[in-house]
# Entry
Amino acid sequence: MTSHRLVIYGGGVSAWVTAAALTNAYTVDVLKVVLVNPGVNTKEPSIADSGFTSLRRFHASMRISERELMGQTSATFKLGALYKNWSKPGQNFIHGFSNYGSMLDGIDFHQYAVLLHQCGDTTAFDAYSLAAQAAAAKKFGFLNKDLVEQGFNLDYSLHVDLSQYSQLMQTCAVRKHLEVICGQLDHLNLDADGNIKALVLTSGEVVGGDFFFDCSGSDSVLVRQLPGDKFLKWDKELPVNKQIDLVGGAAKSGLCTDLSVCRGGWLKSIPLKDKTLYSLTYNSEYESDDAAMTAAINFAGVELSDAVQPLTIVPGRRERFWVKNCLAIGAAAGNFTELTFSYLHHVQSGVLRFIDLYSAAGVNDFSAQQYNQLTSDEYARVLDYQQLNLLLGAAESSGFWSCTSKIPRTAELQRKLSLFKERGKLAFEEYETWMPGSWVSLLLGNNYWPEKHDVLLNGCNLELVVKRLGQMRMVNSNLAAQLSDEDEILGKYAILK
Amino acid sequence: MQEEQIKQIVIIGGGTSGWMTAAALAHFLKNKSYAITLIESEAIGTVGVGEATLPHLRFFNQTLGIDEAEFMAATNATYKMGIEFSNWGKMGDAYIHPFGEYGREINGVAFHHYWLRQHFQGLGKSIDYYSLPVVAAAQQKFMFPMSDERSVFSTYSYAFHIDAGMYASYLRKYSENLGVVREEGKVVAVNQRDNGEISSVQLETGAVIGGDFFIDCSGFRGVLIEQTLKTGYENWSHWLPCNRAVAAPSELDGALLPYTKAIAQVAGWRWRIPLRHRTGNGHVYCSEFITDQDACDTLMSNIDGKLIADPKFLQFTTGKRKKAWNKNCVAIGLSGGFLEPLESTSIYLIQIAIMKLIEFFPDKKFDLAGVDEFNRLMDMEYLRVRDFLILHYHATQRNDAPFWDYCRNMSIPDELAHKMALFRERGHVVEYQGGLFLEPSWVAVYLGQGVVPSAYDPRVNWMTNSQLEKTMLEIEALIDRAAMQMPAHHVFLEQHQAKTNGRPRALMSLYGGRQ
Ligand SMILES: Cc1cc2nc3c(=O)[nH]c(=O)nc-3n(C[C@H](O)[C@H](O)[C@H](O)COP(=O)(O)OP(=O)(O)OC[C@H]3O[C@@H](n4cnc5c(N)ncnc54)[C@H](O)[C@@H]3O)c2cc1C
# Structure
């Protein structure tokens, strides 16, 4: 029906996910999708991903069976992130996807926690989270309809092996109608307006198309060559420049991604079914590579190996993502650190937004403008969230952490902080990646307490509040205890081929 | 902390905004040792118009525990499923902007893209035929929507036409039952503290009423927010040039329509709002393009029933107070800003201000960040409604009158221009969370007023032509059958007037359960 062609350049996760999403959205007689695989290592995360709940929606929209996907990607269920020694030495806080407490008398739950805190109560905030209670007890389960109707939830996402995930996306895309060409880019053929006409490969092959996706990782091979391209560095906003990735054995539990502070930066571990990805992200001004390597090795509990070297990372983003008829996706568009961010979410959100805006029939000028605006906003809010994590990381004050309070903040983050500090209210922003409840629990769980509580709680019956909150905690831990053992349910649920 | 708590709340004004505020505060602050006083002046009176509402009002009532059947009886209410706009895009055009959806999302793509594909092929009907609230309203039918998302009866919601004066009286009783004290009298002087905060107001009688927190519901005057605090006003008349109205109620005549009518005129538009006991009529116009006399004559010659009262003239300036919340004073209602009643948004904006006021309720220190956030959120609401209203005037091909020439050619806010360009380019509707009108509303007005995209979402091409045709026919038939099952509006009103059962839970949404 049409000869409209979309061409993807890249062979890493972002390329295969993009291919899968595009071939899922468009049938072959509508838009033909071609992927040019350079067959080299793409500079983008490639070992494991700690997903957001959006990941599951993505799979559902592609009609991918979660059970099969989990079996094929060494996946574990993820209930949240465990902040170990983050804001306070010795304190563990689980930041779950699902809610903390439930609204009482039309007033947000967390306001009651603030009230009790002001009266000297020291209950950990995650005692009110079913996800946290379940994760701490190594339990997991799917809540039945009755519980859901009563307002309980146990939202989850997945930890997945990225190379296996790429494989799966490749299979999906090829099964649909993806055409794969192997070859490396030699140069671009541009027309007089600066639009890409074709990729000319080193083999001499010319791959023409109507629209091009730069999925080449942080080298941004295509967009870099387009007129007016610019990279905006976040060297002040996210002041880290090195990362060490190590793979170790399976962790005791797969339910949480772990985060903790260390002198040079932070440590993160993503537990898969059969192995764990350990990473140390740091700033080389505050920690030497050798010291960082020692810390990473200790953290991962693996042997030192010459094969592992610190990688240089350059946090930042392209000024524009959609330029002419080319769109940068994933690391080619922006480099966040992996602190509390999901690379799969980053990629999927980019390609889904494209699909939401693209017109094959005519011009895309305003669509491109809109894409760039929305993505800039999205990135800015993600950056806010990451910076907030850095601000909260008070368990360590030396090294890297001596500089975190000087990080320049956006007006939006400043507003969030002052409004929350004042009375525990969360400022509204459009195009957030995290729900208001996630921000609130991150703040309170990491001991960022407001000065005052909601005025509407003045004069309320304190004894009754104490009693009701006690009941909530009890219900949570009872419910958690009734869930299945994590290993057992994972074994039954994930289908191994 | 206790001594920082606000104790005396004073509301100036007993119009719709004053009594809605009083009722909501009395409800939310009950048992909390607040004293709420409302001052109003019978001599000044209220604007006395404002009868068409949005579905959100149901949520307001529900939150306050007000029984909907009782409310309807007390306000002589009828049901409303949308607004019919005639002669806006061009003379002879008419479309209904429904409280509901068009068709349904198919494979993750909004219905209007499927509709556009057929439209480009010269097939299919007007998009009106694919929306149940449009079809039902046009046939003067009404029935409560259902919450089951699989049912086509979940694709709409409803609001009311009410007698706003009776609503205020109803809320007055509600408030007084909860301890609100009403003071009759005209505020003639306002006293301020050194820091500029208002300390008390003085009535004509000499009585002085002190307070910690003042809510200005005094209407266009803005007795506290403007006359006292000189907060300033952002004037938007260059975008929304209508600045006067003449209104006159008439006796019931003809059908009891379940929708509001907004009929464009040579220099403005006329409304027609059917209540149980009378019809509300009015003409909103721009004085630069028509005289009061001509405007009034136009209104008179279009009224069906016998006049009940003399025509009443009103003047206004479209715009918004620079800060709705300034020091210890919050402006709610007409004192906070005025956007003309084309989409019945005033009472909604009152409601939003009240809800946010409760969310950010202060103590005597007046939380700085909280006040800023309140103002920022209210600004966002006003601006988004404003742009949607401007669209109605600007998206026109009318060239039969200087007023329409002006509107067609005026420069519009950048954000709106961008939104329209995106829709023209490929039928994309900009999404946002913080604002009232979402995709179905924008689609209704764009397509209803001749803003037609030049492309659609290519995802819809997965269907073959015959599959598409079949699907479109199915949706049309489904809606047609559903509308047929619905009783006539006036019959439904009779039968269900006193019934509380069967009314679906109210949501803060214009479009019903599915959204
Ligand atoms: C032409 C027109 C049509 C409209 N149509 C709609 C519609 O269909 N739907 C909708 O939602 N909205 C509509 N509105 C808006 C709606 O009328 C108002 O939002 C609503 O009536 C609220 O008004 P208010 O309470 O703020 O002010 P008013 O009704 O003006 O009340 C002001 C109050 O303050 C008191 N007051 C003033 N000064 C003093 C003083 N010095 N001392 C003591 N008391 C004082 C008055 O006595 C009165 O009680 C319309 C408005 C206009 C102009």
